[in-house]
Automatic annotation (TrEMBL):
SUPFAM superfamilies: P-loop containing nucleoside triphosphate hydrolases (SSF52540). This is ABC transporter domain-containing protein. Residues 5-236 form the ABC transporter domain. It comes from the Bacteria. It comes from Cellulomonas phragmiteti. Keywords: ATP-binding, Nucleotide-binding, Transport. InterPro entries: AAA+_ATPase (IPR003593), ABC_SmlMolc_Importer (IPR050093), ABC_transporter-like_ATP-bd (IPR003439), ABC_transporter-like_CS (IPR017871), P-loop_NTPase (IPR027417).
Amino acid sequence: MSDGLQAADVVVRYAAAAAPAVDGVDLAVPTGEVVALLGPSGCGKSSLLRAVAGLEPLSGGDVAWDGVSVADVPVHRRGFGLLFQDGQLFAHRDVAGNVAYGLAERRDRVARDARVAELLDLVGLPGTQRRDVGTLSGGERQRVALARALAPRPRLLLLDEPLSALDRALRERLALDLRDVLVATGTTALFVTHDQDEAFAVADRVAVMDAGRLLQVAAPGDLWARPASRRVAQFLGYEAFVDVPGAGDAVAPAVRALVDAARTAGLALLPTGGVLALAAGAFVVARDGHPGGARDVDGVVRVLRSRRGRTEVVVDVDGVGRVSALAPAGWTCTPGERVALRADAAAVAGLSG
Ligand SMILES: Nc1ncnc2c1ncn2[C@@H]1O[C@H](COP(=O)(O)OP(=O)(O)OP(=O)(O)O)[C@@H](O)[C@H]1O
């Protein structure tokens, strides 16, 4: 018997919709694991999460916990916690009142206060018990909502875009804090997001969804290094795709440089017929951009932009297309100029075609 959550061949179909929103998804989340459901808007992530919660009826398949179907168990009896984009705090209760809601120890005041204090410490809001929730910032509200969701020790926590209403910097910090809290409490969780960085920061494994189907489930590092298809690679942010040439093929120098760099780095999956997927940084500006190096490739600069202290250059490279190359901070040039580039296998993945 498998432990934790098992979704088997789950189908969710809305009346009047031509195609099912979830189309035969198999997904297991063993106890203690955090899985992110990642995919573009409208791909069916929330529908799958809601079906697991019991908020959406199954049109097919089954949802089980520890091998026992919960398909006929009502939402509040599944032992699953829920956290949404807007934490939906009770405006008429203070922070402690919100967190204590749903606690089994509710009637034992000492135990209840101790548990509320423990949860508020855990989410980084110690001593805020008496705060009116209307005075909290967006990030603080979500921390309280997380404490409240964890209070009854749910056997599975379902999170639907819990950080997406927050600004970027806060989202990045809270994603890391959220992971720490889930790991510290040993919480099994399914986390819906459309943000690749967030999924990678929070989850042990990432499940990529598209058009109602699961395309790939893998640990973040494996997913990034070995996307199963061009569609997955595109969604993760790979920008360009290059066919791996045959031994005697005449190819553009840039393609040769990429293949050589990938082979030197021991990248698997380079048979003829395979594809190289290039992320930002598959080329870096070499020797301050001055051409002439034996291993250089050149590209024409289209756009120059600064991103968090790094310079990113959008370049057109013969035989490859338009890609983002990286340059040292402060490096500059004029759009239209030719610059020298070096291939970097660290931002290249091999696909089987
Ligand atoms: N209650 C509903 N009735 C009819 N169609 C719905 C309903 N809820 C969702 N859909 C449709 O089902 C599909 C999947 O929606 P869902 O919200 O699950 O996607 P999602 O990946 O979570 O998207 P987002 O990231 O934008 O929230 C979409 O085409 C959506 O329009």
